[in-house]
Write a structure and sequence with these properties.
553 residues; mainly alpha; 3-stranded antiparallel beta sheet; 20 helices; 18 strands; 48% helix; 10% strand; Glyco_hydro_47; glycosidase; calcium; transmembrane
């Protein structure tokens, strides 16, 4: 700050201006604010090419602008050349080459669909004006990336609609009953709450809730694929029409990254793959873009809550020390890989592959994955491990990522196998009555309870057993069957024949809820999900019968 020397016989500055004390204070406050603004502009503004033009020579500013304006996604020709299951780092390497070429003033090379390397036209390479080079060729316009849906559909092993087998009268009657249940639920939702997120069945009105950041129609989007597969054509068209005309993504509210991803993005992606209707793909991609700011953390681990309008994100208030939840940031991989597949934009894949990178780098206690991870430091916050709530779908997405990659994502398979071995070693227990269950782990101390959410693990282990080493296949099938049996017992031993939110194995009690806070059922699907996987793997009719028992009650 400039200091003015006080001259003899002259009043001090700013007293020389004849200012009173309050005016002096306001003047100094204004001056300090101005200086703060100037320094902030110099050091705190983002790295902008427009800002650089004020301070850099013209040539340096032009180079900086060229680097900043590079496309986020690879050009169509280069994207087409990438193998379907290329390394996740491939798009990043391509973009690095483009940036390096821009810095050197050379035109970047692109790989054609045939595999030969072609030079970009000089005008496209950003040659400097004023040089003696030949006149620039007309700028070529690249065709926008387009996912080849027809090619995808032609490679499916089975038709999307229809059935294969199961034509015996009892099976047909049960199938029809399930279809009637779905239609009953849809008709009442349509009558009392259409366009809202949920139906309140007792008061017969709609409910929006605070989980989806102002998005509406969660029931509609979540039910799209079910309506289509069940061949409820009229109902599906009603849902599709609502998505086309009324599904507004321009909202400004606090949303769960996890819930929006699995229900909205997942529902839209699935329906696009089933139908090929562009509206579902476009909505999924637009919504996926709105989720990206949640990853703007020091580690790249996303926070759990995001404002879909402003892009600001933060952790759940109940999460320990501002941590992110394993089941939430670990349940993005499938959807985000497909967002890249459909858009040609590698940013979605890069975000979830970075999550893998962080998880592989960090030390895991006893080989287990705790539920809470700091998005700032990349360290575990608590050593609480659960295959149920807070952890569950992370493990499921590992084995499904491997299967979805045509069994090429060996990193996902290794992570799954290592995690399952640690779970079996430290968490899988057998009760005095012979029931196999998965306990929770709190800093080395076991809590002998199993949540309803953990009952998905029977199906998951069965799904992975088919791909296990030959000497472990039958072992994992048996383990999956034992866990599924335990979850069935939690239903069979309740008064209503519906399973509780959690059941315990202590004080002589087995597979029963001993606490009032755990004695409720909220339409969770995990037990029936495991029945389905076990039926598909073993074709043991008891699993179909167990599923029918749930329908009847």
């Amino acid at each position: 700050m400039l200091l003015l020397r006080k001259l003899p016989g002259m009043p001090g500055w700013p007293a020389a201006l004849g200012l009173r004390l309050p005016q002096k204070f306001l003047f100094l406050l204004f001056l300090s604010g101005l200086l703060t603004l100037c320094f902030g502009a110099l050091f705190l503004l983002p790295d902008s090419s427009r800002f650089k033009r004020l301070f850099l020579p013209r040539r340096a500013a032009a180079a900086a602008a060229g680097d900043a304006d590079l496309p986020r996604s690879p050009p169509a020709a280069a994207a087409a050349a990438e193998p379907r299951h290329a390394s996740p780092a491939a798009p990043r390497r391509l973009r690095d080459k483009l940036r390096a070429a821009a810095r050197l003033g050379a035109p970047p090379a692109h790989t054609s669909a045939g595999g030969s390397r072609q030079q970009v036209q000089p005008g496209e390479g950003g040659a400097e004006a004023g040089t003696d080079s030949a006149p620039a060729a007309p700028r070529q316009t690249r065709a926008p990336f387009r996912f080849d849906y027809d090619r995808f559909r032609s490679r499916l092993r089975h038709p999307v609609l229809g059935r294969r087998g199961g034509d015996e009268p009892e099976t047909r009657a049960r199938r029809q009953k399930i279809k009637e249940m779905m239609k009953f639920a849809w008709d009442n939702y349509k009558r009392y709450a259409f366009g809202e997120n949920e139906l309140r069945p007792l008061t017969k009105n709609g409910h929006i809730g605070n989980m989806f950041g102002g998005l509406r129609g969660a029931t509609i989007v979540d039910a799209l694929d079910t309506l289509y597969i069940m061949e409820l054509g009229e109902e599906f068209q009603e849902a599709k029409s609502w998505v086309e005309k009324s599904f507004d993504l321009n909202v400004n509210g606090e949303a769960s990254l996890f819930e929006v991803n699995i229900r909205y993005v997942g529902g839209l992606l699935t329906t696009y793959y089933l139908t090929g209707e562009e509206v579902f793909k476009n909505k999924a991609l637009e919504l996926g873009e709105k989720l990206l700011p949640a990853f703007n953390t020091p580690t790249g681990i996303p926070r759990g809550v995001i404002n879909l309008g402003s892009g600001m994100s933060w952790s759940w208030g109940w999460a320990s020390a501002g941590s992110s939840i394993l089941a939430e940031f670990g349940t993005l991989h499938l959807e985000f890989l497909h967002l890249t597949e459909l858009s040609g934009n590698p940013v979605f894949t890069e975000k979830v592959m970075n999550i893998r990178k962080v998880l592989n780098r960090i030390e895991k206690p006893q080989g287990l994955y705790p539920n809470f991870l700091s998005p700032v430091t990349g360290n575990w916050v608590q050593h609480h491990v659960s295959v149920g709530g807070l952890g569950d779908s992370f493990y499921e997405y590992l084995i499904k990522s491997w299967l979805m990659s045509d069994k090429r994502d060996t990193e996902a398979k290794k992570m799954y196998n290592d995690a399952l071995e640690a779970i079996e070693k430290h968490l899988v227990k057998k009760s005095a009555g012979g029931l196999t269950y998965i306990a929770e782990w709190r800093g080395g101390v076991l809590d002998h309870k199993m949540g309803h959410l953990a009952c998905f693990s029977g199906g998951m282990i069965a799904l992975g057993a088919e791909q296990a080493a030959e000497e472990k296949k039958q072992h994992y099938v048996d383990l999956a069957a034992e866990i599924t049996h335990t979850c069935h017992e939690s239903y069979a031993r309740s008064d209503t024949k519906l399973g509780p939110e959690a059941f315990r194995f202590d004080s002589g009690t087995e597979a029963m809820a001993t606490r009032l806070s755990e004695r409720y059922y909220i339409l969770r699907p995990e037990v029936v999900e495991s029945y389905m996987y076990m039926w598909r793997l073993t074709h043991d009719p008891k699993y179909r019968q167990w599923g029918w028992e749930v329908v009847k009650v």
